[in-house]
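Reopening: structure tokens for the fe (ii) ion complex, inputs below.
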Amino acid sequence: MTTSAPANQAAMTKDTFPINGTDYVELYVGNARQAAIFYQSAMGFQPLAYAGLSTGLRDRESYVVVQDKIRLVLTSPLKPGTEIGRLHDKHGDTVRAVALWVDDAAAAFRTAVERGAEPFFEPKREEDDHGHTMRAAIKTYGDTIHVFVERKDYEGPFLPGFVAWEPEYRPESVGLKYIDHMVGNVEEGKMNFWVNWYQEVMGFHQLVSFDDKDISTKYTALMSKVMSNGNGRIKFPINEPAPGLKKSQIDEYLEFHDGPGIQHIAVATDNIIETVTALRSRGIEFLRVPTTYYDELLDRVGEIDEEVAPLRELGILVDRDDEGYLLQIFTKPVQVRPTVFFEIIQRKGATSFGKGNFKALFEAIEREQELRGTL
Ligand code: FE2
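Re-run output (same inputs, fresh job):
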């Protein structure tokens, strides 16, 4: 493992691209109404807002769900021939937009474009009875976009054009708090291009770099670099496939997603045992590592606050770095294509991403890939 551009170097220089946090993540899905019920019933989100036929839209419908600081927008087309439909046909259910909360959307857009970003839409003011927002957007890898959202003058449920969505059904939260990181998969040879892009365009710095010797199994290998913004609230690891004996999980993603995009959304909890117990009972399926993983667990990571038995029972993984440890687990893909999945993570001091688990994890993924006929 090599460390480059240490975090304190970034902290000493002025943040040239201030971002307050993730604002929302928009997914294009086959059936937004049903997806919204899935995110509520299985993953503990609450209904928040709606835009569609009954608010005057004719071409699409969006449902917004929320859990603590995490907002997901689920969007489907209402007729053939739309851009949303075209992208959904190409990618399957996919993350279209990673929206970032900023104080000045026009300034963020201007800065990004001056530094080489390709515009997606120019700054626009949107308003309704609850106030106004400013939004602008740029393109990143694949068909993914970053939307800059300025909402200090807005008091409505989500964004202008959306109305409160208040169905009777309100299942309990599972304790998900905020988005910890979002990982992108890009084509072989493109990782460094996007690393430089986030550095140059958005003032991000690199946290840690792995090489393919760090992340490889008998069959597959990948390379990954983690980009983070000035205040550390946004973390975007970027993966590319490395040549292996067989098709890596990144290759499989790129094939089924038909190009680069967001691979997983990592969401944080304060109590991973409770959260995963609830998710499992509500139908979420997780990747499992062999139970032998737990035989050497404490030798590998040292003392931890949790009992090993429930971790073993639930399949929760543990890793340690210089600053502490973390607990994590990965869902199976949440749509028919083997593309987007979620990670549940609880940090106890550790600021890394679970490198010590990658080998056990990738072997678990390979067993799933074999079942899918990819390997
Ligand atoms: Fe992750």
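The longest helix spans residues 355-372. Residues 222 and 242 are 5 Å apart (CA to CA). Marking as resolved unless the reporter disagrees.
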